[in-house]
Design brief:
By secondary structure, the chain is of the alpha+beta class. The protein has two helices and eight strands. It has one domain: Electron Transport, Fmn-binding Protein, Chain A (Pnp Oxidase, Chain A).
Length: about 120
């Protein structure tokens, strides 16, 4: 789960450890917020483990709507992940006008995890 623009949970696909892709309406508040403030914070955690045993990663990133050739690579990544989770395939036609959704990418610039004292510790990738 990715949280962008004031805690909005999103289904995402990833590329390596720094590229995160999702689809959303360009009219959604979090999508509109990205146009004016592309800097986002991302928190990814496993919500299915017992309380007190989970770990998460905290990231600083820059996000944007994808266009042109970047959109093609991004939708391939997103579609592959969707299929792995039992979802439908995605195509460019699903994320460009006049479709109601667009494809977005966040590129992480810093990763942290919490230590035993709940202090953030940088992760070197």
């Amino acid at each position: 789960m990715i949280r962008v623009a004031r805690g909005c949970p999103l289904y995402f696909a990833h590329s390596e450890y720094n590229g995160f892709f999702w689809v959303s309406s360009p009219e959604a508040k979090h999508s509109r917020n990205l146009a004016g403030q592309p800097e986002v914070s991302i928190v990814i955690f496993d919500s299915q483990v017992p309380i007190g045993t989970g770990r998460g990663v905290y990231m600083s990133a820059s996000a944007e709507e994808l266009t042109g050739g970047e959109r093609e690579r991004g939708i391939e990544i997103f579609s592959r992940r969707s299929l792995e989770h039992g979802g439908d395939p995605w195509t460019l036609e699903d994320v460009k006008s006049p479709a109601r959704l667009r494809l977005y990418r966040a590129t992480a610039s810093a990763h942290d995890v919490l230590d035993a004292n709940d202090q953030r510790m940088p992760v070197r990738l």
